[in-house]
Amino acid sequence: MFEPVIAPSGTLLGLLQRGRGDGTLHALTAPRAEALAALNHCVVRDPRHDWQVENRSLYYARLYLDLGGELDLIEAHLFDVEDHFDDEESRTGLALAVLGHLASYGRRDALELLRRYAATGSNWAWALDELALRDDDAGLRALAVPVLARFGTDAEGEAELAATVRDAFEPRPWRLWAEDPREAIATRVRAAQEAGCFDRWQRQMRPTGPRPGWSVQAVFEWAEQGIERGAALHVPAARCLMAVAGPEDRPEIVAAAQDGTEGARCTALRYLADGNDPDALDLIEAAVVTGSAPVVEAAVDAFERMRSIAAVDRARSWAHRPDPLGAAAGRMLACRGGAEDKELVLAALREAVRGEGPDAPTLWTLVDGTGRLGIACAAPVLRHVYRETASSHLRGRAARALAATDPSFATGFAVECLWDCEETTREIAARHAETADARVVEQLRRLAADPAEEAEVQTAVRSRIGPPDAAAM
Any residues with CB less than 8 A from the CB of 46 and at least 6 apart, and which? Predict the structure, then answer.
């Protein structure tokens, strides 16, 4: 996945790329051609840093509806010659998801595009999943021949078909085709379904990894083998230690945490921290100073998982450290500290924004902690994160923290959050936005009536406006 280039937050394109509610509000008042150009840019050049987690498709689909947008550029993007060479889901996934929402809103042109792409496009499986939720039986049956033609009839092709059927995200088309009146299609799909079930059973009967009776040293060796293969296995290895290690094995585990191989050291640190071993904190501190990068990361992660009073006390003494352990201490206090830790959490928040910018991964925890502790003087920093971050999830966390710390939230950011791309952010807005604003009342009613809206959002909306026949607000 390429790294998206995000426009400044004060531009229409930058707002739409971030999925902010203000993006929709600005687009609806901008010249239509300018708004559609920015919208199409976002859909064909996915702006999300994490396309598997962040939401944009419903947000963009709603804006296409509001603007009466044509789908010519989406069509050109899907059927571009590049589709034959770049079959990564990230290239076309957002466009297909937008089309899926548009089809659910009754846009026939979107439904036809999905059908065409499912028949001929490289990311056909995604398009088929969208159609599985929206198309009728006749439309799906018409795709059976072109989809099955993608798989050869030799042993390799049939094995590939069985794996595809087994792993299908939406099984409806395959179930429909298994009952197809065309015998050749039904027989082939049923055989693939049976082969997929048998393969899943075989994999369950051939487990890999630790076995009962393993020794502590065997677990360490398994973890080290993972390092050699480029797979971090210290977390499951630590769970294995819980099963195989006894009190008599503690000296061996402590020794591994001090100077064992990389896999053994990561495993031992995780095991000792999870068990609140009295030496765990000292060993973690030493590992951060002397360990390799994977060991440092494992030590920090192990520390952040600790729940003891001793760990929180140690976090207070580590919070000023200019290293990963100091950053972890700030996050621990954000999660588990008390009112006396507000200054330390605020300092960590400010330092993270100043040193790493508004998209720093550490901000997720610090922003949550700022809201949990109700640090009112953090509101200016939270507003900055809200405006500038490219992560719609982090923006939603900032909105939640602002709702707990900023008295102006209800009449400010909460209003635009009703149009945000993330349903959790819209839910926050539905609970807090000031209804004296006519735009708020209108949008709440729209969300309540929209069948594509998430149930949690509609529940929050109903808590504000009541049933349709209720008295006007």
Answer: 4, 56, 90, 91, 93, 94
